[in-house]
Amino acid sequence: MYVRDARNRDEAWLLDHIEAMGLDDTAFRSRDYVIAVDDDSTSKTGFGRFRVHRDDDACELTSIGVLDSWEGNGVGAHIVERLIRNAGIEGYDRVYALSPAHEYLAQFGFEPVDADELPDALQKRLDEKRERHDTVIPMVIDSDGFSMPEELRERFKNAAENVGSESEPTESPEDFGIDSESATYKYDTG
């Protein structure tokens, strides 16, 4: 299992899963994302975004998702780790997250921050997110303050897909606007 930067060809996959998980796709740019990939099957297992707010010189982690069939394997933790590392490389000392999953982020060293202390762009984003979720807590971490619990590092090394969970949606001809009852095909011999 490894985490890599997203590529342009990952855009459709990202958008499909962001929509399916009901995550934030505001100002979508595939190059802002990282993707976790299983070594053995080359299946994409999760993703997350490092979003820069240039006007306020601030960055936030957002749209972090793990496919159901890969939950519990430390995938999300490694995505968060990579995003924070990328933020540090880009020169951001503090990384923000506006998340309903604040307990999850707290295990890595994120701490709650007062909404009044947020940069202006993030205060606006907080208001938007609170319209969609009941509880959204603003969190912050220093880019060098991330701590990976050893248990999650080991789970990631030995990650395996959870059997019985569907990882990719099944597509049918109807998904592409094809009426399978009346369609004829180029090489139809009937």
Q: How far is the N terminus from the C terminus?
A: 47 Å
Radius of gyration: 19 Å
Question: Which architecture name does CATH use?
Answer: 3-Layer(aba) Sandwich
CATH topology: Aminopeptidase
The topology string of helices and strands comes to: EHEEEHEHEHEH
What overall geometry do the principal axes of the alpha carbons give? Answer: globular
Quickly give the structural class.
alpha+beta
Q: Based on DSSP secondary structure assignment, what is the total number of beta strands?
A: 7
Any idea what the CATH superfamily is called? Gcn5-related N-acetyltransferase (GNAT)
- Give the DSSP E fraction (strand runs of 2 or more residues): 15-25%
List its salient traits.
single chain, 190 residues, alpha+beta, Aminopeptidase, 5 helices, 7 strands, 27% helix, globular
Folded structure, characterized:
There is one protein chain. The protein is α+β, with helices and mostly antiparallel strands and 190 residues long. It has a single domain, classed as Gcn5-related N-acetyltransferase (GNAT) (Aminopeptidase, 3-Layer(aba) Sandwich). Helix content is 27%, strand content 22%. The chain has five helices and seven strands. The longest helix is centred in the middle third of the chain and has 15 residues, at 75-89. It is globular, with a radius of gyration of 19 Å. It starts with a strand and ends in a 33-residue tail after the last helix. The mean pLDDT is 81.
